[in-house]
Amino acid sequence: MIQRLSFLDSHTGGEPTRLIENLPFPLQPGTVAQRLTQLRQNHDHLRRTVLNEPRGSDVMVGAYLLPPADPTCQWGVVFFNNVGYLGMCGHGTIGVVASLAYRGLIQPGALRLETPVGIVQATLHPGEGPYPNRVSVQNVPAYRYRSHVLLTVGGKTIYGDVAWGGNWFFLVHQHGYDISPQNLPALTHFAGQVRLALAQNGITGANGAEIDHVELFAPAPDADSQSFVLCPGNAYDRSPCGTGTSAKLACLYADGLLAPAQTWRQKSVLGSLFEGSISLQGGQIIPTISGEAWVMAEGALLIDERDPFGQGIP
Ligand code: PYC
What's the pLDDT at 314? Predict the structure, then answer.
């Protein structure tokens, strides 16, 4: 038997998102966080089927569209990649919203999405062309958890901040690397060493949470900053990383370097751009990230039950 699973692919600043609009099995009712637990425990084969080689790749992020439990939300969404699940995903949210616009399911305006780590509000902006594709995402609250954390990596002492932006990040400021596409192997190696050193030294996010994203920053002539972001696994974010930019904005605010409503232009290692700003609500830092996504493929995944790698290379 061959099972068909429809998908819609987009990219946001070069970072792909594969949207799965209909799960091929039912989930028990519950919040999106509770449904993520079910997906993780009972249906992880679908994540590998959708994203792992030979069908997918390390670079791709997946998104399952789910019914929300919160009545103020239109959809729920769970993001995942080749090694596991994400709390939130900024580029992915922009991709999902532009994909819903391409499908004709939404019009310009605001919509609320329930994610495993909280509700985000997306705004689809009006635009020319076959479908509107510029989206702003008001993220979950971001905060700096620890500042100026010292770490020895490859015999060199570096320091950085631990911050939450919907995922856990270690933000490295003075690393001595050139952030450019020519330098990707060295950046990937160094960021991987940083992540290893964090784990070996027991440096975590709140409640012992693993820090699975590492960000390196450098000044940019045509933006406020350029970054390299290593995602869980070994792929770098082709976009400026929405949750990473949120973590950065929280650190800038904590250092007195960013005021509410001030625009921050964050460039990715490839040169794609997100605009970000923060507002303060009830003492919390609420980041908003804006960018554009482009639909680029749609079709059906074909899962042949005889295929030894039909559920991906583990
Ligand atoms: O944009 O938040 C993001 C993201 C996380 C991992 C890849 N992209």
Answer: 87
